[in-house]
Design a protein that fits this description.
This protein is α/β, with parallel strands linked by helices. The chain folds into two domains: 272 residues, Rossmann fold (3-Layer(aba) Sandwich); 65 residues, no CATH class. Helices cover 36% and strands 18% of the residues. It has 17 helices and 13 strands. The strands form three sheets. A seven-stranded mixed sheet has the order 3-2-1-4-5-13-10, sandwiched between helices. A four-stranded antiparallel sheet has the order 6-7-8-9. Helix 6 links the parallel strand 2 and strand 3. The longest helix is centred in the first third of the chain and has 26 residues. GO terms for molecular function: mRNA 5'-cap (guanine-N7-)-methyltransferase activity; RNA binding.
Length: 441
């Protein structure tokens, strides 16, 4: 296992005065809980739902790569890989090579142990992907210099629930992006999940102070005001029950798109978790996986079992849906003896889930050689504004600009459910799930 260099261990004082050691310490001290403890967690179904999102995103991307390139060995970089929670996803995806890297040394060690245990359980070990493990701060050091083979070609980089740490400063965001895509082959993908900056800003501006949340999560911003939010170093503390409690930074997506273009990357899509779920649940295989992963809470609960959320407030939409379903089916003899049960999420969990989005970039140009990818044409992306307007309007450096340099609509227009046109934090699971969830129960 490669170790972090001395320079990467040093405390970094960027615009946000952020010390990455806080994040590393948090995840190093985070105890691995057993299945029984996870089942009792208030956010058990939310965590499973998020894991389902990751599974679908990773699985769909691997399938796309195989279709575009044939079924040959796929090499993957798992950026900010944590304790190795996605190792089984990579195994199921039948990849050939994996590089795992994370800032938390203890997490990297646990990930390597998991990999070896997985390998030992296999009868045909030569059919399992090879792996290397690196402890490093990916926002400060160049990973290529730490690879066993610096010239290896990667097909995919995945960064799940961690990319936001790099937006402390422009140099850190650039280094993170360089690490993510530097070794990607033309046509390769960079995928991830991250807090949705537009939605965070929307909820911040709707709150009476600099904080908002519920019994499941709490976001507290460390900013002088709500209007002049910097494009880098927009710091907030994110608390998620029993999982996360550390500082993060807003990822203003128009900026990310612009930076990615400098590395030959083009955005394929960016979707809120709500929209991505609504799209992917149409797939029968994904619906089966949703049920198998217990990503939705059965409702009503079984006899003598309490729901995860608050009875009086968290399941109003589910109750309304059940009542409507009963009325529709009351005249049909086929349904009279069948108990009504659906899969859902508590309102508190849904409000937390709708803070996130997924994204996928594709490498379409080698910036050194000028070679372009000969695959299908890059998709146009509706609603993604070009941040170059910051340069042309205010004539200030990107790292000194703020969201006020872009129109108010650019910042907040994505913070609505695309179907209901209401703020995501006011939407409910039934607004997105409805009959599709009933199919998976």
């Amino acid at each position: 296992m490669a170790e972090q260099t001395e320079s990467s261990k040093a405390e970094y004082h960027g615009d946000g005065q952020y010390n990455a050691d806080i994040v590393a310490k948090h995840y190093n001290q985070l105890q691995e809980s057993g299945r029984e403890a996870r089942t009792e967690s208030r956010i058990f179904y939310m965590r499973n739902f998020n894991n389902w999102i990751k599974s679908v995103l990773i699985g769909e991307t691997l399938q796309t790569l195989k279709k575009e390139r044939g079924h040959r060995g796929i090499a993957v970089l798992d950026l900010c890989s944590g304790k190795g929670g996605d190792l089984l996803k990579w195994k199921k995806g039948d990849i050939a090579r994996l590089v795992c890297t994370d800032i938390a040394g203890t997490s990297v060690e646990q990930s390597e142990v998991r990999y070896k245990e997985m390998l030992n359980r296999e009868r045909h070990k030569d059919q399992v992907f090879t792996a290397e493990f690196i402890t490093a701060d990916c926002t400060k050091v160049r990973l290529r210099e730490m690879y066993k083979d610096p010239n290896m070609k990667l097909d995919l980089c995945s960064c799940q629930f961690s990319f936001h740490y790099c937006f402390e400063s422009l140099p850190q965001a650039q280094m993170m992006l360089q690490n993510a895509v530097e070794n990607l082959q033309l046509g390769g993908y960079f995928i991830g999940s991250t807090p949705h900056a537009q939605e965070l800003v929307h909820r911040l501006r709707e709150s009476p102070d600099m904080s908002f949340g519920n019994e499941v999560y709490r976001v507290t911003f460390d900013l002088p005001d709500k209007e002049n939010i910097p494009l880098f170093g927009a710091k907030y503390n994110f608390h998620l029950e029993g999982v996360v409690d550390c500082p993060e930074f807003l990822v203003f997506f128009p900026v990310l798109i612009k930076l990615a273009e400098e590395y030959g990357m083009k955005l394929r899509f960016k979707k809120t978790f709500a929209d991505y779920f609504n799209e992917q649940i149409e797939n029968q295989e994904h619906r089966v996986l949703l049920s198998r992963m217990q990503a939705l809470e059965p409702y009503p609960p079984e006899k003598d079992t309490e729901p995860m959320g608050l009875k009086d407030t968290d399941y109003k939409s589910a109750d309304e849906f059940l009542q409507e379903a009963q009325q529709r089916e009351s005249s049909d003899d086929r349904y009279r003896s069948r108990p009504q049960k659906i899969g859902t999420l508590s309102k508190a969990e849904w409000e937390a889930i709708t803070l996130y989005c997924v994204f996928a970039f594709q490498k379409v140009k080698d910036m050194k050689t000028g070679e372009t990818w000969s695959g299908s044409e890059v998709l146009s992306v509706e609603g993604q504004e070009d941040v170059s307007s910051v340069d042309s309007k205010r004539k200030r450096p990107l790292d000194k600009a703020s969201t006020s340099d872009v129109t108010e609509e650019d910042v907040s227009s994505e913070g609505v459910d695309s179907k209901r046109k209401r703020p995501l934090n006011e939407a409910t699971p039934s607004d997105v799930i409805e009959e599709k969830v009933a199919k998976s129960s």
